[in-house]
Specification:
431 residues, alpha/beta, 15 helices, globular, disordered N terminus
């Protein structure tokens, strides 16, 4: 099929005096999927009732973008950098450093960050990469024990590396391990150190999935020793008594050194703001110079307050040139293999976020709106995957095409694509 860049179908417009274009980016994380038999051979986007997105599709143009190059992880860490216009081969160092930025942790030249999940492993199978969505307080208590029993003791026994590691509690199962190095004792890791994301191992054996390469022996040791430490831990005893899954292990992955990103303002001359409940997106926002709006009731899960996020985004239009709303729920539903919940999440995004933003934008003047996931997450496999995602752009200067629905099939039929996802932002803002 012949393809064409978006510049071919974005009408050229002249910016006059007082022109104040508003831009909105809506990211329904992981919403791209494949046809599902239980949905009559439709994808969740096709099966969902999405009147606002379909209206935008009819008024605008669709296309495809590849935000996950084959040689890099097919996850949100790479995909969202691409989506916001940053070539991951230039700017990506690892997932954990992005999340460290979300917590205000500055990494020095010789420092490294490692993502630390609390997970449930049974019979060498990744049963739950969230440890049954363990609470912040329980997670923090387990990490305090790991710091004291796995690191402090090793340091006291003369291990010079152990004293340079620190566990940093985050949100629920999402935590960090920070290594503080210097010129004389740099991190034992390198770009050749390999690890696997636990959410890509759901229901699979982890026997051959432990970290490999430089410094991996340290990570594997901590992961293995955590199983013995957590087995009889009071936090887990209480969770089991309450009918919840225990956090059986630490899972260490996504490591990297300090990233250096030019600000979004430098690149595009526009102010921006991020609305999200996920540390990864908070971190990317911090690194590109965007403040973030914390929304009460935004959980990063299926129970998030969609309407509150929509209201916050509408209010943010008054202050910022670019408002970016990220919603994790479709991805979470995919990781659980729940197509019905994925459809519900998409319908809530459409009704409570897309619709009110579209209405507000039409009242305020010139605007453009972009709706696109970062990467596909298939309900069938319960994990992120490489591949194209559907996108729609609507608003001022956009030439409508013949598509009338927003979904993977309609986007492919448009014949327009970005093989390098990081080129999309230039077309969205500059064309």
């Amino acid at each position: 099929m012949e393809t064409a860049p978006f510049s071919f179908f974005l009408l050229k417009i002249r910016l006059g005096g007082g022109f104040a274009m508003k831009y909105v980016i809506i990211i329904p994380d992981g919403c791209a999927d494949e046809p599902i038999e239980s949905l009559g051979g439709r994808t969740p986007l096709q099966a969902a009732n999405l009147p606002a997105m379909d209206r935008l599709a009819a008024d605008g143009s669709l296309g495809l973008a590849n935000n996950t190059p084959d040689h890099l992880p097919a996850g949100s860490e790479v995909a969202n950098l691409c989506l916001l216009g940053y070539d991951p081969d230039v700017y990506f160092t690892g997932r954990a450093p992005l999340e460290a930025a979300a917590q205000g942790i500055t990494l020095g030249e010789h420092d490294w960050a490692v993502r630390c999940n609390l997970v449930t492993i049974e019979d060498q199978t990744m049963v739950d990469f969230t440890a049954d969505h363990i609470s912040n307080e329980e997670g923090a208590e387990l990490l305090r024990s790991a710091q004291a029993e796995l690191l402090a003791k090793a340091a006291a026994e003369g291990d010079p590396i152990a004293s340079r590691f620190e566990f940093v509690p985050g949100v629920s199962y999402r935590n960090l391990l920070i290594y503080r190095g210097d010129a004389s004792t740099p991190a034992p890791f390198s770009s050749d150190t390999r690890s696997r994301a636990p959410h890509d191992l759901t229901d699979l054996s982890v026997a051959d999935e432990f970290p490999r390469g430089p410094g991996s022996d340290l990570l594997v040791r901590l992961m293995s020793e955590s199983a013995e430490l957590f087995a009889s831990h009071p936090v887990n005893q209480k969770r089991i008594a309450e009918g919840k899954r225990p956090a059986t292990n630490l899972w260490l992955w996504g490591l990297g050194g300090a990233p250096q990103l030019p600000s979004f303002q430098e690149r595009y001359g526009l102010s921006g703001v991020m609305i999200t409940a996920v540390d990864l997106l908070r971190g990317i926002a911090a690194l590109v110079g965007w403040p973030r709006i914390e929304v009460a009731g935004a959980t990063g899960y299926l129970d998030t307050d969609y309407a509150a996020k929509g209201r916050a985004a509408v209010e943010a239009l008054e202050k910022y040139d670019v408002v970016c709303v990220h919603i994790e729920a479709p991805d979470e539903a995919s990781h659980e293999g729940r197509a019905d919940e994925k459809i519900k999440a998409l319908e809530s995004i459409d009704q409570s976020i897309v619709a009110p933003l579209y209405e507000a934008l039409q009242k305020q003047g010139d605007y453009r709106i972009l709706v696109t996931p970062d990467h596909p997450t298939f309900c069938s496999t319960k994990k992120h995957t490489h591949g194209m995602v559907p996108l729609l752009i609507s608003g001022t200067g956009v030439q409508p095409d013949s598509q009338t629905t927003y979904d993977e099939i309609a986007a492919e039929a448009s014949g327009r694509r970005f093989d390098h996802g990081w080129d999309l932002m230039d077309a969205f803002i500059k064309s």
